[in-house]
């Protein structure tokens, strides 16, 4: 839904030199979520400032309209994100989306004083999630599979191909079986070819792929489906 990288946005806005520090950490081999946590520990701002700044991250044009339309049609809207709980809660609260979003799957975060700490969604002390294509902290394909059972792939709205993605919009059926799923994603972390290949091997893909650039494209995609 956002039109910027929330992980780096806070640093660009509050303490730009930490963007360089973040790049140095990842160049040294530190996993991204852990690198963000280390950079946040050096962020010199109050809890209130951090929440206010991150809540005001730019939004994709038309995206809020698309989310509201999905809600009006009785669809479930879930988020699978590599951000963190505090960042996402700040954004949802500012835009009055808390009651619309069914569930959020993301890295856990919590404040200790004014310092925000982020821990991986997939705990470090647990066995690996097993997907060789995704970062160690989260496989979005497996996370999505935990949320619903797919009996048939319907229309997919995406900019990269058929993929598990950062925002998942699902149409509820009376049988509680999801027969149509719309996927929206915009980053490399949203592309899970391992899980995709597994599903393609099991059953033919029946999806329509619709490229998108802004939330207005997604809105049109939603409007093309009956309630």
From TrEMBL:
InterPro entries in the cross-refs: HAD-like_sf (IPR036412), HAD_hydro_PyrdxlP_Pase-like (IPR006384), HAD_sf (IPR023214), Pase_PHOSPHO-typ (IPR016965)
Keywords assigned: Hydrolase, Magnesium, Metal-binding
Source species, domain of life: Eukaryota
SUPFAM superfamilies: HAD-like
Any single Pfam family the record assigns to this protein: Put_Phosphatase
Molecular function per GO: metal ion binding; phosphatase activity
Residue numbers binding Mg(2+): 186
Chain sites annotated for binding substrate: 7, 82
Co-factor requirement: Mg(2+)
Name of the molecule in the record: Uncharacterized protein
